[in-house]
Amino acid sequence: MTRAPSSTVHDNPFMKPMEWISLALLVAVIFLVLPMLLDAFRLNLVGKYLTYSFVALGLVICWGFGGILSLGQGVFFGLGGYLMAMYLKLEASSVENTKIQSTPGIPDFMDWNQITELPWFWKPFTSLPFTLLAVIVVPAFFAFVIGTAMFRRRVGGTYFAIITQAIAAILTILIVGQQGYTGGINGITDLRTLHGWDIRTDRAHNILYFVNGGLLVACILFAQYVKRSKLGRILVAMRDKEDRVRFSGYQVASFKTFAFCLAAVFAAIGGAMFTLQVGFMSPSFVGIVPSIEMVIYAAVGGRLSLFGAVWGTLLVNWAKTTFSESFPELWLFGLGGLFILVVLAFPNGLAGIYRTYVEPRLTRRVKALEPAPAVALPHAAE
Amino acid sequence: MAESKGNGLQSALRRRLLMGLAGVPAIALMPRMSFAAGPATATVNTTGLAVTDTEVTVGILHSATGTMAISETGSIQAEKLAISQINEAGGVLGRKIKIIQEDGASDWPTFAEKAKKLLVNDHCAAVMGCWTSASRKAALPVFEQYNGLLYYPTFYEGLEQSKNVIYTGQEATQQILESLNWVAKEKGAKTFFFIGSDYIWPRTSNKIARKHIENVLKTKVVGEEYFPLGHTQFNSVINKLKLTKPDVIFTDVVGGSNVAFYKQLKAAGIDLSKQTLLTISVTEDEIDGIGGDNIAGAYSCMKYFQSLKNPNNEKFVAAFHKMWGEKTVIGDVTQAAYLGPFLWKMAVEKAGSFDVDKVAAASAGIEFKEAPEGYVKIHPNHHLWSKTRVAKALPSGQFEVVYESPELIEPNPFPKGYQ
Amino acid sequence: MLGDYSLTDLSSIFVMQGFAGLILFSVYTLMALGLAIIFGQMGVINMAHGEFMILGAYMTYLCSGFFQTHLPALFPAYFFVAMALAFVASGALGMLVEWALIRHLYKRPLDTLLATWGLSLILQQAYRTIFGPREVGVELPSWLIGSVQVTDTIEIPINGMFVMAITLLITAGVALLMYRSRFGAQVRAVVQNRPMAGAVGIDTEKVDRLTFGLGCGIAGIAGSAFTMVGSTGPTSGQLYIVDTFLIVVFGGAASLLGTIASAFSISQTQSTLEFFLSGSTAKVITLLAVVGILMLRPQGLFTLKVRR
Q: Which residue, A267, A261, A219, is CA-closest to A78?
């Protein structure tokens, strides 16, 4: 995965030199620097943070490029995570492991809730291929339904944002309320193996970290592909002047729905990887709070930059962990202040700072740099 | 391929770096070795815990922020008090306890993350922490995997038992059965109405209560209602209470909902001096928010109340107030949290080692005679033998104990016939 | 389930249940009104709405303490002072926030959401630092406690009726202000066309600040009133925020009438379902219905027809 791009660098205007450098830097940090510097525990933490950056990446596409702010990305992250957790939980609930229950062979929380038979929608999740497929398809379908309903009626902007937020809230209440089927507020815990492979060991965490990193780079490349394609340009055009695009004969709703679905799929992949690395899934990733936090990651990184999304996620989470370890009673001040600062002073986030202060200096040194791409311009209308 | 090769190299390098780092504190502390009074570190710590010749590290893991901070603050305070008292009395095996406090932020995954940090990074010899069942469920696999030791203070639903956890609160049968017997006998209760928050603890507790009411007491449950956590409107269920007129309202509503429920109950004209209400979720801490006037007359069943009259408790209450202010109230969980560090200390001393396996093995049978609640003993299933008490809420916000079980009640986390 | 009870029992329960529904309706309206004004009139999503409510609740708490120690004779009347104070405090904080934060972001409405979210975190932590992490109990004057005995079997909680009265007053006040006063005309002018409103001599900045302050002030009153029925703690605001947003979204954000209609339909559905089903099932069914309707009619019940 890491080698694929270098073979295509000569013949494809796929990315600009600076973007190649950014990618190389990111790959180097994820695959070399962090694993060398951090111990197993911290590396696993970074792995967890990187799963959030899938969501931030999706947000760059649908919010930065498409101008659609979804405050319900936690729903898709959660869906991906829960679907994966269902598979892992069924594997962990073999008859042998659960023989103290009144009904052995079903997940423990079902037994506590007097459910005596595996519900029908849990049954297919004994199969790994089905689960992997579901992780992609279910969130995409869900996003498709929401997107179609909203965008065809031209609901957008702030209103779309709070509807998605409402959906996130509702899904949380549903999951918490239906604890016999979902594990309720505890979530699905104590996950052990993936197809017989123990995911709890340090070695497994290490391997999952690299798989996660690989998937992330793949998603970045795919997002870059979308961004460079005609579709990406239409998205940006739509964000800036939706009516003109519509009058030019494009189906605005379909493009928006596509961007939303893509963001959902990215989030779901992140969710599934989260479950694998952390070993459980709980409704606290579905609701309003995590959904907004994930938007903040993208905002801190720079909503227009794919790489910024990853850096932003890492930075905010690092800050959160450090603040909360050093000042457990005061860290919310820091976090809240960070949000306000970013929004007021650096609306284009890290990537914006980089473009304003760092890039001009670099440009002088790196020759043959093409003019900045359209999306890099700070946009006035939203 | 390239990845796994790189990985091997990196982890080797990382290991070397780590070992180098681990050496640093040991060197720094070397000169102080001569002050150590206890047995040599090498003999009491064979598994690489953070134990030096003068110090031993213990973690505290509760929510200092978020919605649960309301409840967990008391536990943090009690644990800090206990640890400072232990340190004043000479520490554990001649070593002072050093605290590392982490914030679970009312977020279950954060609990798992911080638990792992406390065990893997800080090598804590024991962790006092968790409050909600959800946070314990999230952290439990971490404690089992990395062989840590958790002292969990909250009364909870049972259905769990782990080598790596000492449950210092009551499990559901201890708390519930005795009080139901009391209310049936004392108040002649025939009909019960259950109201709870919608999650595992109230549901399990009510299930146990229902079995006991129907199978043992041979009386009736006339209603069972659950509300989402954080629900604030109870007028409809109060109307149902007025319609069904149960002899006893049995509640396990938690958090902010608790406050709303009792305020609205009072406003609706349900007089708790005439209507018997038995709750398993209200301690002195909750009354602070509810307001003593709003809940006066209700019965709460717990193992500890601040107003308990015994010398241990008077000493404890005085010390607690000295450290945290006169106005701070002490609830059941706060007292249970206070037990944790002492139970750990005694187990360590009995085992003569900080090693988690040895401490866990030595824990069964540990007796703590100075416990504020009276006398407790650790059962082989790692729960505590304890008494159950029923007390009536007073307008002052305190409780008046009206009943105390004559014997210590055996903890039974997997009750036969109640599942 | 109703077969076993006598007719008088049943009829009185239906009356009381009707009141329970109305009380819930008032609570919802009061919660959502401030948010609806800010969002509907200014397009700003105030994520710190719950924290503004709790500021009102804390003002009430301080007031009750002050009257108890210094003016015990006037204690029965303190609640009115507290509500006025809550309005002033939340309103003033709101105007400050508008000045420091929101006014820089009118061109980027989505960003106000992130900024106010940061603000809500800071406010929560500030409450925790100032008032402590535990909930505080607010002492109520005795005339607000208890219920009115209408007949032998019908009892109506006084504080419920009090909330209803306040809601009615405030809603009427807001309606008058918005549709009958000069200020209201200015607000509506700014909503419909900002440059034109500026051109005809309306001080749009001042109008924005006052509107935001008004919305926050009403949130403060709501918070003050809810000390009678709910809890007061650093994070209590979070208990209300979900319901509040749902009501505003469901109502169709741009219209006050929509907000009221949506509060009415949601509260009646929920209160009726709660009586016949269990509490959390009722909530789930209500929410599913809301989502279902939003899918069919995502713009909400009522929408303002503005040419964009």
A: A267
For B238, residues 6+ apart whose C-beta sits below 8 A from its C-beta are B264, B265, B268, B270, C20
CATH of segment(s) B55-170+309-386: 3.40.50.2300
Could you tell me if B291 lies within 8 Å of chain C, comparing CB atoms?
Answer: yes
Bigger pLDDT: C228 vs B146: B146
Nearest to A273 by CA among A86, A48, A94, A55: A48
Helices (H) and strands (E) in chain C, counts: 11, 2
Contact C26, C164 (CB under 8 A): yes
Q: Cβ–Cβ of B103/A324 closer than 8 Å?
A: yes
Please tell me which of the candidates B225, B232, B292 has its beta carbon nearest to residue C230: B232
> In the structure encoding, which two tokens stand for residue B56, read together?
């031993």
pLDDT in tens, B229-287: 778 888 888 888 888 889 999 999 987 788 889 988 888 888 898 899 999 999 998 88
Question: Is there a contact between A52 and B26 (Cβ–Cβ < 8 Å)?
Answer: no
Q: What is the pLDDT of residues B307-316, one digit of tens each?
A: 999 999 999 9
pTM attached to this predicted model? 0.84
pLDDT greater than 80 at residue B197: yes
B229 by DSSP, 3-state: which? coil
* Apex B11 CA angle, B5 and B16, nearest 5: 135
Of B102, B137, B228, the CB nearest to A176: B228
Residues of A in contact with C285 (CB under 8 A): none
DSSP A107: -
Q: Where are the domains of chain B?
A: 55-170+309-386, 173-302+390-404
Strand pairing class (B299-302; B276-279): parallel
Chosen CATH of B173-302+390-404 out of 3.30.70.120, 3.30.300.70, 3.100.10.20, 3.40.50.2300: 3.40.50.2300
Residue A1 has pLDDT above 50, yes or no: no
| Cα–Cα distance, C160 to C157 (Å, whole number) | 5
Closest CA to B76 of B118, B39, B128: B128
